[in-house]
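Me: I keep going back and forth on a fold encoding question. No explanation is needed for now; the record alone will do.

Assistant:
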Amino acid sequence: MTMPVQNTFAVSAREASGLHLIGDLHGCTGDSRLMLDAAFLEAFCVEQVAAAGLTSVGCLFHSFGSGGGVTGVVVLAESHLSVHTWPESDYVTLDVFVCNYSGDNRAKAQQLFDTLQSAFKPQDTHFQRIERM
């Protein structure tokens, strides 16, 4: 009788830990191209990812047409950035998640989030910071 092979993985807290930053931005008054133009938002996000010292491995941004918003994601070697805009409501959601497998990326994630938030110029932000284990 053959017994199934069971794989066990030991993962330390440092290897599995990460930081998830989530923001709901209301009353955004920043450059309208960030809200409406997928190519403009994508270029801005990729530039800010690099400026924060994170590594972009791919991205996809989609515009919902005339007056509609944009949804986009930048896949990072460290995890991801996602952005969703609703220009008709002056509303944006931001989601930055980084793993800390090869080093502590928390400050880089916070820098990226803060830069993006500032660019949208929200009047009010609902912010969540989640330490992942």
In short: The helical segments are 13-16, 32-36, 38-51, 106-120. The two ends are 39 Å apart (CA to CA).
